Amino acid sequence: MSSNTAAATATTGASASGGSASATTISIPATAALGGITITNPAATAAASFYKIATNQYITFGWNMTSVYATPTSLTLVASASGGNTYPISTIPGTATEIVWSPYEVEQTGTVPFAASTYTMSIWDDRGPKATNAAGYMSVNVGLVFALYRPQTYTDLSSWTCATCSGASSVYSNPGLLLFLTTTMAMLVSGWSLLRRAGGGRGSTL
Questions:
Q1: What is the Cα–Cα distance from 147 to 124, expressed in whole angstroms?
Q2: Would you put residue 56 in left (φ > 0), alpha (ψ -120 to 50) or beta?
Q3: What integer best gives the mean pLDDT of the chain?
Q4: CA 165, CA 174: separation in Å to the nearest integer?
Q5: Fewest CB atoms less than 10 Å from the CB: which of 40, 65, 107, 186?
Q6: Residue 192 lies in a domain
Q7: 37 touches 143 (CB < 8 A)
């Protein structure tokens, strides 16, 4: 073996008999960097990504592998909400470079419903989420951040009521009542001004 390579062993899968796992020896350059993935969709320069939680609404995430010599057997994707809940999204072949998934369909598997929140997507290989970083092997990626929202059903304006408004603020939501109160107040102010002027005029002739 040349001086600039180091031997590494990667498990490629179970043997045909199902008893033991077969292994393949691969050569990783001693100068190799830590392996990883670079997110390509959404682009790093794109605006914040918001996705709808609804039927037939699909999300596509894509990536490229860099400095990965030991091709993973599988990739696991898990979304973590800012509130703390985690959602297993999928486990896909290690050679995959994108995933198309639906938050709505994930919910149908019995997981806790997605909240309208910001999420971080974690992607790791078959070594697990706590695998030690190693040259030539894929490191866990937690660089994909996105947001999910749930569309609200349409409500006609004429049937809308403000459930959180106080009695005072409800006046402002009734144009007729607001006009009546405004007119009455203007009349009272005008009448009071006339009475003051009339009283002041009489006093000046004494």
A1: 21
A2: left
A3: 79
A4: 12
A5: 186
A6: no
A7: no
End-to-end CA distance of the chain: 123
What CA–CA distance (Å, rounded) separates 123 from 129?
8
> Cis bond leading into 93, ω under 30°?
no
**Residue 204 located in a structural domain:** no
Tokens representing residue 164 in the block: 């959180």
Could you report the per-residue pLDDT of 89-131, keeping only the tens digit for each?
A: 999 999 999 999 999 999 998 888 999 999 999 999 999 999 9
- Three-state SS string across 54-80, please? CCCCCEEEEEEEECCCCCCCEEEEEEE
Closest CA to 125 of 102, 143, 106, 141: 141
Q: Domain range spanning residue 86? A: 26-149
Strand ranges of the sheet holding 74-81, from the earlier edge strand across to the other edge:
50-52, 141-149, 117-125, 74-81, 86-93
pTM above 0.90, yes or no: no
CB atoms within 10 A of CB 136: 20
How many domains, in total, are found in the chain? 1
Mean pLDDT by 10 residues, the chain (206 residues): 44 39 74 94 86 96 96 97 92 97 93 92 97 95 95 70 60 61 71 61 48
